[in-house]
Amino acid sequence: MPSLASRIRLSPRNELILTLGILVLAVALPAMALMWSTRQILDRESRNLRVDYDRLHRLQLQAAGLEIANRIRALASPTPEETTNTTQGIGSRFLELLNQHKADSVLILDDEGRPLYPAPVWAIAASSPKDEAASKHLLALWEEVTPNAPVEGVLRTLRTLETESLGAARTLSGRLVVPGLEWAAVSMMDPGHSEYRRTLDSLDRHVRDYSDPLMPAGQRLFLRERLRSVGIDDTPSAEEAERLGLAAAISFRRPENPGILERARGMESVWMLRSPEGTVVWLFREERLRQLMETLAQRSLAPRGYTVTLGRIPEGTPERNGLQAPIGEAWPGWELRLDGTQADLAIQQAIRRQALLHLLTAVCAIVLGGFLGGLAVRRFLQQARSTQVRHDFLSLVSHELRTPLTSIRMLVDSLAGDPDPDPGRTRQYLGIIARENQRLSRLVDDFLTFSRLERGRMTYDFQTVAPEEITEAAVASVRTRFSVPGCDLRVETSPDLPPIEADVPSLSTALINLLENAFKYSGPEKRILLTTTRQTGDICFAVVDNGCGFTPDHRERIFERFYRVQGSGQGSAGVGLGLHIVKSIVEAHRGRIEVDSTPGHGSRFAIHIRVTPPNP
Question: What are phi and psi of 106, to 5 degrees?
Answer without folding.
Answer: -145, 145
